[in-house]
Amino acid sequence: MNQESNHSTHGHESHVHTVLSNSVEEIQTEWNVSPATVKPKQDTEISLSIKSNGKNMISFSAVHEKQMHILVISHDLSIFQHLHPNYDGEGKFIVKTTFPKAGKYKIFAEFLPDGSAQQLAKYDVKVEGEEQDETVNSDKELKKHVDQLMFELKFDDLTVKQPVLMTFTVTDSKGSKITDLEPYLGTAGHVVIVSEKMDEFLHVHPKDEAAKGPDVEYMTTFPISGKYKIWGQFKYLGKLYTVPFVINVQVSK
């Protein structure tokens, strides 16, 4: 995984980070948030400029139909946004959003410059106001209703640093199997996983990207033990469903 440098330069409203690529080049990410003081439920613009060795990077490959995926997650893991910014063609991506409540947030940006490896950039935002963080508790049962659909999550193993088969099963409110899931961003479903302190980030896609349900399978590996929050995103009858789960990954015995 690409690593963010421990050194960053802070401007008045912009923040520059260096991401180390798998190649010899260094990729710099310059973040801007406007307004500089962010408040809850306020329209906020986030921009991200990508440079290589000080020059704008212009060409980016689409990954699952988008040149950049931005994930906004609150530090208590209660807020999740999956956004797709507009690209100005000159190395800058821009997206508008609102932060639902006060507190700290981490923004993850995934992008693939032409001729380079896929990159993961990170940025922290503080939203002004009284923080009311929620406790992150592991789910006792891995079944969730989201509107008229039921989602069940199963694992063949939940041991740290071991390959894990993760299966979402989708049924309707009557228990009938859903067999006509629609592609979301070119695949059967997207899954984003972060560790409790957000020092580990995983974005995984199905083993069979053309799967229609009721089962959608994923392979992943949890690099450290502890709690993780998982968001599965699926499209059905034109509607996007986001289902969250919290699990606890054990140390190998």
TrEMBL record:
It comes from Cytobacillus oceanisediminis 2691. Keywords: Plasmid. This is YtkA-like domain-containing protein.
